[in-house]
User: Fold these one by one.
Assistant:
Number 1:
Amino acid sequence: MARATIPVRVRWLATAALCAVAASGCGKTPEAVFVSSKRTTDMIRPVQSRVEQAVAENFGTPQNLYASLRLPIDYGTAEGVVKEGGGAGSNHFTYEWTKPETAEQLKKVDLTGAAFVWDSGPNTNVTITRQRKDVPAEFQVIGYHPTEQSIELSINVPDNPEPGDKFRVIGFGMQSGRRLYMQHCMHCHGVSGDGNGPTARYLNPLPRDYRLGVFKFTSTSSRDKVSREDLHRIIRNGIPGTYMPSFLLLKDEELKAITEYVRWLAQRGEFESRLNAGLKDYSKPAIDEREKKGESRADVEKELTKAATSKEFIAEFDESIESAFAGLSRDWGRADEASSVIHPKSGRIDPVADAASIERGRKLYLSDKTKCASCHGLGGRGDGPQTTDVQKRSDGSEYDKPGLFDAWDKEIKPRDLTQGIYRGGRRPIDVYRRVYAGIKGTPMPSFNTALKENEIWDIVNYVLSVPYNGKAPPALKEAPVATTASTAEE
Ligand code: HEC
Ligand code: HEC
């Protein structure tokens, strides 16, 4: 038996499949292109092309997507074996799914356009010649007939597949995620997930740009990414007080498919920004800086271009691709581990039984330990002094306007707590998590080291009392108060 080379990436959607898959036809998405981030387009030419090439090679284009199998993404994979080959040089065969529990479900799924990988048998290492180079053949499913149990491939097989040859079909889940995303989310969040779809310009706050890999309203600790469950919840419920709608009407499996596609877009964007992170010296702002200091722009560009085409640069760049994959796989994988989720050990303090809790929370809110009021204001209206001071970026430089800014370099206001609108959810545990971990990508800091658990619960009680003139919110008076961490979720 030939040893199967395990591919690191597979192609799972081609132009033809896209038109067939998107029920609305290709006409509706005429300019479906992935755009590069500004940080990439700010690089000198050879560096920009290198970054763009690395992203395209690992993630593809909207018409020709790649599944990087090193990422912790569930692309939707089916495993099967050949029942009878169609003959050498043919492109079809009959099959059987190896996992009986998914066989029924696979009858209802469209596998057209999904990637196809031989895991055993004579066709595992098929190569084709492209640009005078032998490259591994990229099989795709172009015909799927679940009633006859037959599959047609995009490339003819040189050898007749033998009964029992193993194969995988990869990417059908993502394909449905992508279709739903293009239908429901693209007009706000953009084809690339850059938050810049056609309707985005009219909205405030802007739709999320996923490409930093940063999400705000997570249940995870401040160093952790968003979990699948968080994304699923946000997409299902929407974000109150913003234009992010709720998608309650979608089926659970549809929400799962969209969630996975959003994770893929986020990891694609983060891959690009991780590559950029080490290349600041090659960017326009860095060249501007050197020009300001008296160097000749032409000389600087010449020097950088020479450096960027050196063997050392290319070797380092290839290493940075590897470490970007390692980092993405580690960080996004960890977000779904149970230990990443914030579960306070003690339950919520009952603000009615312990009436002093709200007052303790108020004092903490006004204290120097938290400085909540410096942003949210003494009365909680979101008008603290930090909103009129000039702030500094993480690199020490000052913003040219006073006020707070987020990770996307957009102005941002602390929440007006008198409104009682909580974007990340209004359950006490949601507010607890906001205070414990902060709001990622925004100036709202985390307080897990500054405050003890009971102090955070006091603050939660205070925050929830602000819209009610310092009294516990009426609905919560009747609600049973949780005594354990697990019931605190309800
Ligand atoms: C009408 C515009 C609009 C549509 C349509 C829309 N969103 Fe959003 N979305 C937003 C806005 C605005 C925000 C930012 C809210 C904020 O920053 O508080 C957002 C934020 C998000 C976030 C970030 C949550 C976080 O914690 O950071 C996710 C994830 C998201 N949207 C997913 C989706 C998905 C998936 C769809 C389609 C099923 C979708 N959105 C459709 C406007 C939209
Ligand atoms: C440096 C400024 C800053 C400080 C200090 C700060 N916040 Fe915030 N806070 C923000 C900003 C900005 C937002 C809005 C973030 C967003 O949703 O985009 C916010 C949002 C919130 C929200 C809304 C959560 C939601 O789900 O919508 C709450 C509640 C909150 N802060 C409470 C607090 C408390 C309590 C403290 C002190 C323990 C505090 N903040 C300290 C800036 C700050």
Number 2:
Amino acid sequence: MLKISPLRKRQFFGCIIGLILAIPLIYVLTLDTSEEYLSIGPMNTGHKDLKCFACHADANGNLVQQIQSNISYTIGARDKNVDFGTKDVTLDNCLQCHDRPNDRHPVYRFSEPRFKEAIEQINATTCITCHTEHKKERVSLDKVNYCMNCHQTLEIENDPLDISHKDLILNEKWSTCIQCHDFHGNHKYKVPEKLADTISLKNIKEYFKGGKDPFGTDKKYTALSLEEWLKTVNP
Ligand code: HEC
Ligand code: HEC
Ligand code: HEC
Ligand code: HEC
Ligand code: HEC
């Protein structure tokens, strides 16, 4: 009778176990849409073509580690409260694709000490305060009255408005500001001068949720696509 040595036996079972482990692994790695199932929620407006590693990679964009953490996430070794990938997503990730030289509210500016109190109310030093990801939205912060934290003392010479900025502020009409002014100043459009011509708050909220852009589609800057960004990371 054929006698199988214990060593052979171990090698044989080793192979079987290897195969059992490898098949799902290959499956996960090759499944093109697997990223969708791994996600904790749908991507935000404009981000559906981005891959996870565009925001969740380490400083060197280490893809192997990224894939490992993707897999541990699938098999449940990591729960969603654990940092996904190797690093927290910070504004640096966002700025790699969204650097806009003349943003009227540049995040880094608000680190100045004079904004300390305002920042306690509205942390404008990071994008995520207003743009949490994975909520299928454009702007995740619902409120719009936070302009009050920085523009209390606004004075405008020869104010063109039918109800002046001074009066709007005196009467605490802080939700009218966004009805005329976009936040980043990235839209090219004519700013209204009459209160009757402002964008309705309903349309603003729909825009925040991912709907039509009421400030128009003519913009100064558009973001880098995944391909353009990859070229800057791996030239
Ligand atoms: C555009 C950038 C971006 C992309 C692309 C992205 N994420 Fe995120 N993700 C974030 C941000 C920002 C947070 C933190 C949420 C917060 O605190 O507001 C986050 C949080 C998470 C979390 C919660 C754990 C943690 O570290 O906070 C998981 C899990 C996650 N993302 C998975 C994924 C997966 C899977 C993909 C690919 C389908 C993906 N993400 C693509 C930006 C992104
Ligand atoms: C790999 C590049 C990339 C990264 C990283 C990235 N984005 Fe984007 N983002 C895009 C692209 C491309 C669009 C769609 C084109 C556009 O709107 O300019 C977009 C769209 C958006 C929009 C909607 C714009 C609109 O006009 O409707 C917001 C808001 C946004 N990104 C915020 C963020 C934030 C916040 C982060 C960081 C958590 C981030 N993005 C990270 C590429 C990126
Ligand atoms: C204090 C809140 C706040 C912060 C912080 C913030 N945003 Fe926004 N963002 C908004 C609001 C409100 C809108 C919608 C009005 C508009 O279009 O300007 C918006 C719109 C956008 C848009 C779409 C319109 C456009 O400008 O093209 C992009 C892209 C965007 N933000 C990216 C970012 C990025 C990237 C950061 C961080 C560097 C950031 N935002 C920080 C509030 C914020
Ligand atoms: C954290 C503080 C802060 C918040 C919050 C804030 N702003 Fe500003 N904003 C500034 C600063 C600082 C400037 C630059 C003023 C200057 O250069 O004198 C500015 C400039 C502006 C400008 C003029 C830009 C230009 O081209 O001169 C407009 C319009 C504006 N903000 C509207 C708003 C609106 C609308 C909101 C609320 C949705 C808002 N801001 C919230 C600090 C803030
Ligand atoms: C009916 C539309 C309208 C409303 C409401 C409105 N603004 Fe204005 N705002 C304008 C116009 C028009 C100008 C002058 C033209 C310009 O500079 O864009 C202006 C100018 C400004 C400026 C100076 C910009 C510069 O170039 O120096 C700031 C800052 C500002 N507004 C902030 C606010 C804040 C804060 C609120 C809310 C209390 C507000 N605005 C409400 C239309 C509006």
